[in-house]
Each structure stands twice: as structure tokens, then as C-alpha cells.
Amino acid sequence: MVSICYPVTMTATREFPKFRFEDITRDDFPALVTLNDSCVPHVNSIGLIDLENFSDQARCFFKVCDQDANLAGFVIALRPGESYQSVNYRWFVDKYDSFLYIDRIMVHLSFRRKGIATLIYERLESIARDSLVPRLCCEVNLVPPNPESLRLHREIGFESVGTQATERGSKEVVLLVKPLNLTE
Predict the structure, then answer these.
(1) Domains and CATH numbers, the chain
(2) What is the pLDDT of residues 33-50, one digit of tens each?
């Protein structure tokens, strides 16, 4: 398994006093699959083999837990140069030399609207800046629509850089980039 970007255990802050980042282990995979599948069609379904592949390729592969060790969410993010065959990841590989691609951020239903996704994005931005990576990249479904995710991404500074149809036209995504100021 890939080591996670940098130390994952997070010191509680005033804004997020009861959540922490933790390494993902193979023992977590069934819970991650269940959480992921609860969010289909906004994300593609993944299985245990997919998670095994992500654990080998991902630059960031960590979970967020509450003070009682309940899974609140998780993230999978990759850098360029991996063999991952997602058409969306490949789109960014073709356009940019350096980026952190967020394949998915999943937040458990009982933890939504508590700032978990924002907390994860703040950590990803910090990781990217520390690695001198100039942008975060991701996509959000337009068809089927995912307005809450699109609104969050716009609120935190992501900009549309294109759209593309996927899955033989049954899905359409907006491709998003958040440029990072590496001098901060």
C-alpha cells in the first residue's frame, strides 16, 4: 500500500474538533465499498480489487473518522503517471503535466453537512502545495446531475475547464480545476 502523502493523524482544530485522518488498511475495504456504493450514480461502483489497485497507485488514500472511530468519509487521489484508465483521469493527463486528481471523495450520509468534504479538500490542498503541485483536478456529474457537489466545488474555487460524455453517453461530467498559489 502507498504511504499516505504525509502523516495522516490530524490534530483536532477548533473547526473540526472530533474528526481525524487515518491510514486506510485492507480491513477497511468492505466498509469503503459499502460507502462508495451508497453514492452511486454520483460515483462509479468499485470493488475490493479496485481498492487494491488504488492502494498501489494513489498518492492520497486516507479516511476520516470521528472520535469513536466511525468512518465519516474517504478520499482517493492520484498524480500523473499512473496506469489508471479512467477517461476523466486520462483527460487531465493529456492536458496537464502536474496535478493532484481527486478520483473520489465519499462522505457517509450521517456525516454530511458537517464539513467533512471541506476538511478533506483542505488537506489535499496542503499536500499538493507541499509537493509543489499547482492544481487540483476532478470531475462532477452533470448527467445524472449532482448539484450539491458542483455547488461545493464552485464555492471552494474550482473552475470548469471542459465537459465530456462518458459511459457511451449515459453520463456527462464537467471537468474542474482549482489552481493553487504555490507562494502561500
Answers:
(1) 19-179 (3.40.630.30)
(2) 999 998 888 888 899 999
